[in-house]
Amino acid sequence: MTEVIETMTARLSAMLGENLCALYLYGSAASGDYREGWSDMDILALTEQPLSAAMAESLVGLRQSLCTETGVPRYRAFEGGILSLSAFLKGTPEPVVYWGTSGERVTDRYELNALCRLDLLRHGILLAGADVRDRIPCPTYAQLRENIRGHYETIRRYGKTPGANFYAFGWLFDIARCLYTLETGEILPKTQAGEWALAQNRCPDPVRKALQYALNVRRNPLSHKTEAVYRYAASLGPVIQCFADTLERALTDKTT
Fold first, then answer.
1. Which helix (H) or strand (E) holds 27?
2. From the CB of residue 163, how many other CB atoms can be counted at a distance below 10 Å?
3. Closest CA to 117 of 147, 82, 75, 76
């Protein structure tokens, strides 16, 4: 992973040149919770001046170009945005490069939700440029709670019928992280959040076994890519909704 991050850092630095303000790594790759075969590598590249249309078009396909050049598919795991610091802070429209799970594109806006922003501020690593996190407002507790409510609604909508993949386990970790943030106002990596939820008895009985299973999978994803694991993941809808009940109660407690 280190070599891939170094190569991406060098390529972005070379392409952006003096326009590069700051390049950050955050999420699991920064907090030590990266798991090959499961995790993404989240980055945020901030520039001094807005990207030109030509530069945005050059950057949008960079991760795929690196896959082709090196024969290493891991570059597709990079996700995030490339935009000016001004647009990031003010939310003003301008050319923005977006890399996501489903693809990449040039768009006109990019923002980090409150949970991601807190993660960047608490656990982010500066890869290149100058550290400007003192200019990025820390999210308020109210913003975190509202962000968590949005996660909760998504879980209710899409977590009822999870697919036969690791995303089903991901719902459990997302809920555990949300519970931790609601209780503390801080954020934990996914693995630690799952361990915290078990240790602090935040899991109803139907959830405990599933979360323990999910932790075993997360600790070594590559050895768990089997039909049996995927079938179990696909069966987790009721368990995810049971854990979502716990999150709902916590959200209610924090708003009354």
1. none
2. 11
3. 147
